[in-house]
Specification:
single chain, 5 strands, elongated, 5 helices, alpha+beta
Length: about 170
């Protein structure tokens, strides 16, 4: 059970993340839908929520780093600057009237401190950046790198919970 009182099961979805899209909002909505549909196939009686997050800066999208060096470079690029975090969410389910799909995205601006390289090296060495879009987790040690959040904090974590709950209640 989570802080909203909702019970759920996490089911990882392996999907092809190759897209021919350039708008971060469209990318995260497409990938979140792929994830949700993939899980729904094996769980056809469930309401499935898929989510995907990217970081955008200077018109480029940053996903999860491939290695330590890429994580460090991403963090150095974000240091002292404002970037955008996009999370796409898709809700899919079947009922007696057919298949249903709802998808949306949220964008939050994050400003990083002008972080010294020593701090970035330490952070990368924690291993935390390796499975995070943009190479940081604001909910963990990465919070030390962040100066300000303009918008939904939960969106930066990877799931805009309040908006999701509002949409679920209207389905």
């Amino acid at each position: 059970m989570d802080r909203t009182g909702t019970e759920y099961t996490v089911v990882p979805a392996e999907v092809d993340e190759t897209v021919d899209l350039f708008d971060p909002a469209e990318v995260v909505m497409e990938l979140s839908e792929r994830k949700a549909v993939t899980v729904l196939i094996d769980h056809p009686d469930s309401v499935v929520i898929g989510a995907d997050t990217v970081v955008a800066i200077d018109g480029r999208m940053l996903g999860k780093p491939k290695d330590r060096e890429e994580a460090f470079e991403m963090l150095r690029e974000l240091s002292g600057r404002v970037h955008q975090v996009y999370t796409g969410v898709s809700v899919v389910f079947n009922d007696e009237t057919g298949a249903h799909r709802e998808r949306f995205y949220e964008m939050t601006e994050v400003e990083m401190y002008d972080n010294p390289e020593e701090l970035l090296e330490w952070y990368v060495d924690t291993g935390e950046p390796m499975d995070k879009a943009g190479a940081y987790g604001i909910q963990g040690k990465g919070t030390l790198l962040v100066r300000a959040v303009r918008g939904n904090y939960d969106n930066v974590v990877g799931l805009p919970v309040a908006e999701l709950m509002r949409r679920l209640s209207s389905l």
